[in-house]
Amino acid sequence: MNKFKAIKEAAYRANMQLPDLGLVLFTFGNASAADHASGVFAIKPSGVAYPELTPEMMVVVDFDGNVVDGNLRPSSDTKTHAVLYKHWPGIGGIVHTHATYATAWAQSQRDIPIYGTTHADHLTIDIPCAPPMADERIAGNYEYETGLQILDYFKQHNLDYEEVEMILIGNHAPFTWGKTVDKAVYNSAVLEYVAKMATLTEQINPEAPRLKDSLIKKHFERKHGPGSYYGQAAR
Ligand SMILES: O=C(CO)[C@@H](O)[C@@H](O)COP(=O)(O)O
Q1: Which of 12, 26, 153, 231 could bridge to 130 as Cys pair (CB 3.0-4.6 Å)?
Q2: Could you say which of 3.40.50.620, 3.30.830.10, 3.40.50.2300, 3.40.225.10 is the CATH number of the domain covering 5-234?
Q3: Which among 12, 61, 77 is the best mutation to test ligand 1's pocket, defined by most ligand atoms within 8 Å of the CB?
């Protein structure tokens, strides 16, 4: 039996949820599942269409991006995943998509304002958009640098990766993560839903106000306060 069977199957199941949830078209995205004890993660192979995927095709890579198991080339975004796993021991899964609304906000280089209680159920701040990558970073080890850009952004803005489990990269697209890969998929779906609602909110009322602090607090706390079961199904 392949010793990486569990993470390969978890990564496969997560990847297969992405088209089902309407978060990817063709091969526009990837999910990975990590085993921190072994220092590896399983990720979608690059360029393989979702209907063709099997658990066995998942590529196992270490936290420096070296392939340790698998016959196919790992996703082009592998080094971004590797950097995040290496520096953030609390995450067990990562998802990258080009989902329409979240990507449109990334392309617009804007944080997604907290307009409604759906957003506040998950996060008490605007969904952050990191600046587009600098030319030197693009010309260098681009995917590795994308991971560093995410780390830099969290450090500069004093954000906790276990509280804020998503980011938009300006000019590119979103990355989400979580304690498990299922939670990372859940976060990706929530992000797309909230991004769509924010887009429509601004179309209907370009002057729409940010959600009041009292409602942000109330909605977040009633979902995440003591004894809460919110989101547990996905963790
Ligand atoms: O960001 C992009 C494309 O801009 C990639 O994530 C996406 O096309 C997926 O590529 P892979 O098939 O995972 O190599």
Answers
A1: 153
A2: 3.40.225.10
A3: 77
